[in-house]
Amino acid sequence: IDGGGAFEIFHMTTAAAGNGELLHLEGLEIRGGLAPQGGGVYVGRNRALEVVDCHLVGNRSVGEGGAIRAERPIRVQVLRTLVEDNTAGTLGGGLGMNLVAEAEVVDSTFAGNVAETSSGGGISAFSVSSLAVRRSTLSGNSAAEDGGGLSNVVSTVRIESSTVVDNAADMDDLNAGDGGGIAVAGPGAVILLANTLVAGNLDLSTSGDLCPDGFRKLQGAVATEGFNLVGANDCFDPNFPAGAPNTNGDFVGSSASPVDPLLDPLALIGGPTPTHLPGPASPAVDQGSCPGEVADQRGYGHRPAASRVVDDPSIPDFGDGCDIGAVEVGGKDLTGLVFADDFESGDLIRWPSALP
Asked: CA–CA separation, 131 vs 141, rounded Å?
């Protein structure tokens, strides 16, 4: 569906309390939308939104949410979706959310999105009760202010088994932004990191504090469940002291001695969305923990064990042998398989997953 750079595409207005009417979008390419808010998709109060196996590209909003704007819905879900090269005039270049009860982003990539005058180049969460980002990639997004990858204002955000790299804050060089990767602000606001890679991001400020990977202010906090890799802890939470690993079980560097994750460029390396593959010498390999995960963002993992974990015996494990971030090195495609023990050797022609 193409808005031609001139028209709004999906707009679901406010409903009465308790309505909960669902807008479900699946298998669509949504491009070239233009709207005051939500260039590709807008959902209003008391609605619900599901975006599954979609591609949102080249949409623009004058205000919030270059691709998607969610304003007081009860629920938002983005699953196996690529959100790229969208632009918001204010905040939330890819996804802008305000007063949302429950939201999740799973197995998705936000890349190259821009918040032109405010925060949250990839994702902006303002007063979101619960946002879960799982097995997802935020890469190459930028914001004029804070949080090139993700901005959290008075929200609760949990980022698990995800990769946040190559994002930028203060892209206009006006020294008004920090936290190229993630930013959190406001009383009670928290970002919880688990098995997540945040590195190689930029703060383009020319004066004041330089906060490339993370930034917190106004009583915001970043907490850890361990097994994270943070490139530089400048302006990060005190919960992330430098160390490899540190006392909290994270691998953390500083601007003076940053941790390079040694990732390959963003590319389609399997699965429906582009991701970053850790290189052979990446410090993320086998140093994480992902209990219960059966696959990485791509749907790849270890067939015989029906698990995401593909352990390299030449590398000492720190956790359970899982790789830190969204991608598991050496994983095989687990989607559509009849047998999980390599019996069919991945031959989906000989052993089809669907009946004729």
From this structure: 19
The set of residues, in sequence order, having a beta carbon less than 8 Å from that of 105 and lying 6+ positions away, is 78, 95, 123, 131, 132, 133, 134, 136
Pairing state between β 300-301 and 332-333: antiparallel
Report the 3 state secondary structure along 228-239: CEECCCCCCCCC
Burial degree of 314 (CB within 10 A; 0-12, 13-18, 19+): exposed
3-state secondary structure of 322: strand
Residues 70-129: pLDDT tens digits? 999 999 999 999 999 999 999 999 999 999 999 999 999 999 999 999 999 999 999 999
Cα–Cα distance, 234 to 199 (Å, whole number): 12
Segments in the chain below pLDDT 70: 15-19, 336-356
Q: What is the pLDDT of residues 290-312, one digit of tens each?
A: 999 999 999 999 988 889 999 99
Domain ranges for the chain, please list them.
2-252
DSSP string, 98-127: ES-SEEEEES-EEES-EESSSS-SSEEEES
Length of the chain: 356
Residues paired with residue 185 on neighbouring β-strands, in sequence order = 153, 217
Q: What is the pLDDT of residue 336?
A: 61
pTM of the model: 0.93
